[in-house]
Amino acid sequence: MPAITIYTKATCGYCQAAKALLNRKGAAFEEISVDGDSAGQEKMAERSGGRWTVPQIFIGQSHVGGCDDLHALERAGKLDALLAG
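User: That's the sequence. What structure does it adopt?
Assistant: Structure tokens below.
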């Protein structure tokens, strides 16, 4: 399984929903909180092509996007293959 990184903020409902989906899939992930961390948020934005909203999700070297993007992959039946590497 490729490494999964998710950038989050504590009060973000979309972050909670994305993490819940990954947990249901049994996918271990590294969570990086950008609460009050402007340098961390800048790194996230640089890595995600300029996106400043959370969550930002990376599976392996692929930038998945946000919560809606992750759920769209699941609805399309493509998330399991991406998680499998």
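The chain has a mean pLDDT of 96.
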